[in-house]
């Protein structure tokens, strides 16, 4: 009898979870119709030192999928290749006389109030992110110091490696860790692949066009970022907390 009751309780609970998931799914579809404040912007930051190569191509596929997910979405690709982003500034060290710093212009773009999602893309070097990506993430401390200005924006990551198991997932986790410190909302690549983020392979000829699986993760990531961003946008929770949701 006890076993039967336990089994019945489990089935009832499972049924409730399925029903609740269906309702939540319907809410996502409804929220995805139109954001309350006009179009939202999804920004992709490509942290490869090589302009227009495989990481940029992967990011473009991701952003194209994000744009196609809703007519209320605008996308922007920012390539850091060729830019000067001195990482030591994040530690409070001054720039040398005449040294160029392109980070403020990048920060202005990703800090816009209509930016609802930020996707960071990086090549994999020795099992982790590029030095350019690390410098960019370190410099983003200015947002954390500015009342967590990236709070509740959606964060996604893609990584391009030289092999299928070339350190992409470790790289994704490292980048996501930095974005979580900004109180951003981290998402993976979504169904049907649904893992930590987008993982792609450079075939050694600077070409990812034949990596069908990798490209599917990039597209799924773009769609997933939009899906979650639309829900947050509809709830009016992009940016800093209001008096009503600040806790206490």
What does the model show?
The chain is α/β, with parallel strands linked by helices. It has two domains: 1-31; 36-240, Rossmann fold, CATH 3.40.50. It contains seven helices and six strands; from the N terminus they run αβαβαβααβαββα. It is globular and about 50 Å long.
Any chance you could write out the topology, listing elements then pairs?
Layout: H1 2-31, E1 40-46, H2 54-69, E2 73-79, H3 103-110, E3 115-123, H4 131-139, H5 141-145, E4 154-161, H6 168-180, E5 185-186, E6 198-201, H7 212-234
Parallel strand pairs: 1-2, 1-3, 3-4, 4-5, 4-6
Helix pairs in contact: 1-7, 2-7
Second rung of CATH, namely the architecture of the largest domain? 3-Layer(aba) Sandwich
**Total helical segments:** 7
Order of helices and strands: HEHEHEHHEHEEH
CATH superfamily of the largest domain: Flavodoxin domain
Largest sheet: 6 strands, parallel
Q: What percent of residues are in strands?
A: 5-15%
């Amino acid at each position: 009898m006890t076993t039967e009751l336990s089994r019945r309780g489990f089935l009832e609970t499972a049924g409730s979870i399925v029903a609740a998931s269906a309702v939540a799914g319907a809410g996502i579809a409804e929220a995805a119709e139109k954001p309350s404040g006009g179009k939202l912007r999804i920004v992709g930051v490509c942290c490869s030192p090589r302009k227009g190569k495989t990481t940029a191509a992967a990011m473009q596929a991701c952003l194209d999928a994000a744009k196609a997910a809703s007519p209320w979405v605008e996308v922007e690709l920012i390539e850091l290749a060729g830019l000067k982003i001195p990482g030591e500034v994040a530690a409070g060290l001054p720039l040398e006389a005449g040294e160029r710093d392109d980070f403020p212009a990048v920060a202005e773009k990703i800090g816009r109030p209509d930016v609802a999602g930020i996707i960071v893309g990086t090549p994999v070097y020795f099992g982790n992110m590029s030095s350019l990506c690390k410098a960019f993430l370190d410099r983003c401390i200015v947002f954390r110091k500015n009342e967590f200005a990236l709070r509740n924006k959606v964060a996604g990551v893609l990584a391009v490696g030289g092999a299928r198991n070339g350190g992409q997932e470790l790289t994704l986790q490292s980048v996501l860790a930095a974005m979580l410190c900004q109180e951003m909302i981290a998402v993976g690549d979504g169904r049907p692949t649904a893992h930590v983020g987008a993982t792609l392979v450079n075939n050694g000829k600077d070409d990812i066009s034949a990596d069908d699986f990798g490209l599917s993760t990039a597209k799924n990531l773009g769609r997933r970022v939009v899906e979650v961003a639309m829900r947050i946008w509809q709830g009016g929770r992009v940016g800093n907390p209001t008096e009503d949701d600040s806790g206490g």
